[in-house]
Each structure stands twice: as structure tokens, then as C-alpha cells.
Design goal:
11 strands; mainly beta; 123 residues
Length: 123
């Protein structure tokens, strides 16, 4: 089993910045895609940013160049730098890690989710 711990959330004024971090531990085989999702009250969970093992990056349409995802494969960590934050960015942000186990030549990926960290953008 993999445990994920997110940190770095909090209260920030509009236009401000936050850096979220995610640390994975436990029964890690090989970590494939890592990323961040968020969910605000009354809204569906949405993808914020993901990065594959090959460092292919996807961002949500709302990001518009404001966020940057990074990862350290040796430390099993991921980070999300968020700049120019808006009130509509307020949400619980979740780290997700794809844990890949090999059975011979067959890969079996399993997604693991953190508990989430609250981001509140308000003046």
C-alpha cells in the first residue's frame, strides 16, 4: 500500500502564490504518472496537472501558464507551484500517484490518492 502526504496549502490573497508538495511512501514498486487534482464544493473533481514518468505534462484548461508541476523520481515526490492565484482556484487539492507493479511483462497500474490539502484564495 502507498501513502501520500500533501502539504503546502493554506490561505493566500488573490494574485498570491503557493507551493504544494506530495510525498509518497510505503509499498512502492514503480511510480508512473504523478499529478494533482482539485475539487471545490459543488463542483466535480478536475485535473490540475499531471506528469508521466517520461515527463510529459498536462495542465487543466484553467491553468493558463500559472502553475508548474515537478517531480523527483528518486525521492518519490511531486510539487505544484501555483502563481497568480484566483478565488476560483479555492479547492481541496489532491495528489495522485500511479503505482505500477510488473507481473512478468504485464504492468498493473494502481492509482493512490492523498487526503488532500485545502487551498483558499481570498482577500
Amino acid at each position: 500500500q502507498v501513502q501520500l502526504v500533501e502539504s503546502g496549502g493554506g490561505l493566500v490573497q488573490p494574485g498570491g502564490s503557493l507551493r504544494l508538495s506530495c510525498e509518497a511512501s510505503g509499498r512502492i514498486f514503480t511510480i508512473g504518472t504523478m499529478g494533482w487534482y482539485r475539487q471545490a464544493p459543488g463542483k466535480d473533481r478536475e485535473m490540475v496537472a499531471t506528469m508521466t514518468m517520461g515527463r510529459t505534462i498536462r495542465y487543466g484548461d484553467f491553468v493558463n501558464g500559472r502553475f508548474t508541476i515537478s517531480r523527483d523520481n528518486n525521492k518519490n515526490t511531486a510539487a505544484l507551484e501555483m502563481n497568480s492565484l484566483r478565488s476560483e482556484d479555492s479547492a481541496v487539492y489532491y495528489c495522485v500517484v500511479e503505482n505500477v507493479r510488473l507481473y512478468g511483462s504485464v504492468a498493473a497500474p494502481i492509482d493512490h490518492w492523498g487526503q488532500g490539502t485545502q487551498v483558499t484564495v481570498s482577500s
